[in-house]
Design brief:
two-stranded antiparallel sheet, elongated, 46% helix, single chain, 9 helices, mainly alpha
Length: 248
């Protein structure tokens, strides 16, 4: 719970006054617990980590109150390690900053895995299941990015947000800079020492390293875009999108 409290504080404190307190309300903490527990429930359904889900959202859209309210938080899958919306700036007035429970990808993956198909054996189901995959193959909301021991595909990283890690990291670091001069104001309690201030300061330092590493991998790793090995895949591998490289 302490770790969860720390994430929320350093990732959303600049845009959400409720996230600045030493102790959260039951409602605020309850929402965060539902987010984490829903991720674990996803594993009980057989869902793996989908570290590429957050890549489907344009970075600037994470600053849009309309977009985040409609799409729900930071990713179309609860199985990403997308965390909370550290991209949104105070002037954006974004309020949906927690990943949505049961995103578009999650509902699709569970439906694909569990829907009853009458009068077909498991082998006979395969062509139909492949059709369902093809239906969404060009839709970024349904992109699956596997968890990696070593980063090969920088779209699929832990703690990242949006489709441009450099831009997202710049926004995230701007928000962290906003926290530093307010640490004492956020942690002060009459008759107490600076222990909680020191914990928040350390949390800011720890968070500072996350977008830096995500950004470095995004720039340095040359990766290949994996295409599902099916009948329609003329080439199993295709080069990384040159347009996106130039953007970085």
């Amino acid at each position: 719970m302490k770790g969860l409290h720390s994430w929320i504080r350093v990732q959303t404190g600049p845009i959400d006054p409720k996230a600045r307190a030493n102790t959260f309300s039951n409602e605020h903490m309850g929402e965060a617990i539902r987010f984490v527990s829903s991720h674990e429930v996803g594993h009980t359904f057989g869902l793996k980590h989908n570290m590429g889900a957050s890549f489907s959202y344009p970075v600037d859209s994470l600053r849009s109150k309309t977009f985040t309210s409609k799409m729900g938080g930071t990713a179309p899958s609860i199985m990403d390690y997308a965390r909370f919306n550290y991209v949104a700036q105070p002037e954006d007035n974004v309020t949906d900053i927690t990943p949505k429970i049961g995103g578009v990808y999650d509902k699709y993956a569970i439906d694909w895995g569990y829907r009853w198909i009458e009068n077909r054996t498991a082998h006979q189901e395969i062509p139909l299941l492949n059709q369902w995959i093809r239906k969404h193959e060009n839709d970024p909301l349904y992109f699956y990015g596997a968890q990696q021991a070593e980063v090969v595909d920088p779209r699929s990283q832990s703690e990242d947000l949006g489709d441009n890690a450099v831009k997202a990291s710049e926004y995230g670091l701007k928000n962290l800079k906003r926290i530093l001069p307010n640490i004492l104001d956020w942690t002060e309690e009459e008759g107490k020492d600076y222990y909680k201030a020191s914990k928040l300061y350390k949390a800011v330092i720890d968070q500072w390293g996350e977008p830096i590493m995500v950004m470095l991998w995004q720039i340095l790793v040359a990766f290949m875009l994996i295409i599902p090995f099916m009948e329609m895949a003329k080439t199993p591998l295709s080069p990384y999108l040159q347009k996106y490289k130039r953007k970085l």
